[in-house]
Amino acid sequence: MTVTDHSQELINVAAQAAADKLAHNIIAFDVSEVLSITDAFLIASANNDRQVKSIAEEIEDQLREKLDVKPVRREGEREGRWILLDYLDIVVHVQHSEERSFYSLDRLWKDCPELALPEDAIASRNRPEGAETDAAGNVTAPPADDFGVGIYVSEDHS
């Protein structure tokens, strides 16, 4: 069994919505062979709780407006660290970068086929975590450390 056309359409709209809100490392997996409860997972990351919420809201809005679907379940909104949107055919995970790194869903599902995504979503994989970006997704400031100081990688010339 593979992802249905409807599931792929849901993934595409959700991935584009996440990219529009500057999510990073957007990826989708076809989990239909190993799970009977859903066809696909979409995973996206954000650098802070507010952005996690904003991305999840945009995904919900776009899927409702463009495909007239609503999630049957939504979890994690209060904390804003990992919001799960369950549309039955697909499950969307919007995670804070720290949760994504810790739970490593990408590694857990890496043996499943990766699904095609819109160009903007694919471009999100090159966006540095923690970097400030403009509306077009261009990096305007490097990632900052815990003190708000830009982190620069220097070359060792020894």
Gist?
The protein is an alpha+beta fold. The protein contains 5 helices and 7 strands; from the N terminus they run αββαβββαααββ.
General form: globular
* Low-confidence parts: 144-158
Structural class: alpha+beta
Give the fraction of residues assigned to helices.
25-40%
Order of helices and strands: HEEHEEEHHHEE
Major beta sheet, specifics? 5 strands, mixed
The number of distinct β-strands equals 7
Please characterize this protein's 3D structure:
With 158 residues, the chain is of the alpha+beta class. It is 32% helix and 22% strand. It contains 5 helices and 7 strands, in the order αββαβββαααββ. The protein has helices at 5-20, 49-67, 97-103, 105-108, 119-123; strands spanning 24-30, 40-46, 73-75, 82-86, 90-96, 132-133, 139-141. The strands form 2 sheets. A 5-stranded mixed β-sheet has the order 1-2-5-4-3. A two-stranded antiparallel ribbon has the order 6-7. β3 (73-75) and β4 (82-86) form a beta hairpin. α1 packs across α2. The longest helix is centred in the middle third of the chain and has 19 residues, at 49-67. Mean pLDDT is 86; it is low at 144-158.
Indicate the topology.
Layout: H1 5-20, E1 24-30, E2 40-46, H2 49-67, E3 73-75, E4 82-86, E5 90-96, H3 97-103, H4 105-108, H5 119-123, E6 132-133, E7 139-141
Parallel strand pairs: 2-5
Antiparallel strand pairs: 1-2, 3-4, 4-5, 6-7
